[in-house]
Specification:
Blueprint (H helix, E strand, L loop, with lengths): L12 E6 L3 H10 L5 E7 L6 H8 L4 E2 L2 H7 L4 E4 L5 H9 L5 E3 L1 H19 L6 H30 L9 H18 L3 E8 L2 H8 L1 H18 L5 E6 L2 E7 L3 H18 L10 E10 L13 H17 L5 E8 L3
Parallel strand pairs: 1-2, 1-4, 2-3, 4-5, 9-10
Antiparallel strand pairs: 6-8, 6-9, 7-8
Helix pairs in contact: 1-2, 1-5, 5-6, 8-9, 9-10
């Protein structure tokens, strides 16, 4: 790891930058003058992006894949100044629990502050070191105060208010990203759709308050059954969906059967009748010899349809059961 830290400064912070355009360049050029900061890496999909070229000249490691930057470089802050969708940025944040991910309006505010400072110093004979330290103090305050509010607003935007699980909008974005990973590394991806059996009857007989309690109980079981790399979401009504990266058909069947058994053991109506679930699972597989030159295009709705068909098979077969299926992609 290249180290461009200068002496003289407490509480050093290692920072990674995603974005090689105007914002990334402004961050790179300004942060290098702050003694407390070490820039550990800069990432952009364009290897000739301005910030990438400057970083190379400075001896800072550069990347075209943000995943590689995150994997290789320990850091305290990751500042993302790209124009990715808010959902994609939130997905990145959820995967870096030990790193402060700064993006969106806060990242834009930071690089504008630094850019304005640079412009001001062009007309000054001062070296600007004290100003840089002052601005750095302001930036830290912005992050400490605004970041929790920003995260809370994102949580509201991307989570179902009743169950606390991820919303369907977040789900779609996550699946599309995971399918691209399947193309890249050949690892399987499974999608499981859960549906509460005879849920309308429960609502009709006991009321929506009881129905909501059952939904929340199932959501808690569902969330606790998923790994940190999985995504658990409420798709709507009594339907829940799990995205299970790097999970083949056999592993997804084991997961789904365990989930079905837990629901059957835990969920009850007020008169102590069991509440059961049916689950349909679809697994996407890519031929190991798949060429990266011409990636196979598959819409996420095909995976949804396959899992949904499996769910209907489970319902038709008597409910309270799991049906699995596969989509296998090869290339001539």
């Amino acid at each position: 790891m290249a180290d461009n830290r200068q002496d003289g400064g407490l509480n050093p912070i290692d920072i990674g930058i995603i974005g090689g355009g105007k914002g990334g360049t402004a961050l790179l050029q300004a942060l290098k003058d702050i003694p407390q900061v070490t820039i550990v890496g800069v990432c952009d999909i364009d290897p000739q992006a301005p910030a990438i070229l400057i970083a190379r000249e400075m001896g800072i490691d550069t990347y075209t894949d943000s995943g590689q930057l995150i994997l290789e470089q320990p850091m305290n802050w990751l500042i993302n100044v790209t124009h990715k969708s808010t959902t994609q940025r939130h997905i990145l944040s959820r995967e870096l629990s030990d790193v402060t991910v700064i993006d969106g309006h806060i990242a834009e505010l930071i690089w504008h502050l630094l850019l304005d400072l640079q412009e001001s110093l062009k007309d000054s004979n001062a070296d600007g070191s004290s100003l840089y330290e002052l601005v750095w103090t302001v930036i830290q305050r912005i992050v400490n105060i605004a970041q929790p509010v920003h995260r809370e607003l994102e949580h509201i935007a991307f989570h179902d208010p009743l169950t606390g699980l991820y919303s369907r909008h977040m789900l779609r974005q996550f699946i599309e990203r995971e399918i691209s990973h399947v193309y890249r590394n050949g690892q399987p991806l499974s999608l499981a759709i859960l549906d509460i059996d005879h849920f309308k009857e429960v609502n009709d007989q006991f009321g929506h308050d009881v129905g909501d309690q059952i939904l929340k109980q199932l959501a808690e079981l569902f969330k606790n059954s998923c790994r940190s790399t999985d995504l658990a979401s409420r798709y709507g009504g009594e339907e829940f969906i799990a995205v299970l990266p790097n999970t083949n058909q056999n592993a997804s069947l084991i997961w789904a059967e365990r989930m079905r058994e837990r629901a059957e053991e835990a969920l009850r109506t007020p008169d102590e009748r069991k509440v059961t679930i049916s689950i349909g699972v679809a697994t996407l597989l890519i031929n190991a010899d798949l060429s990266n030159d011409t990636p196979v295009q598959i819409a996420s709705d095909q995976l949804f349809k396959k899992a949904d068909n499996a769910l209907y098979e489970a319902k038709d077969a008597g409910r309270n059961r799991v049906v699995t299926s596969e989509i296998s992609i090869t290339q001539e």
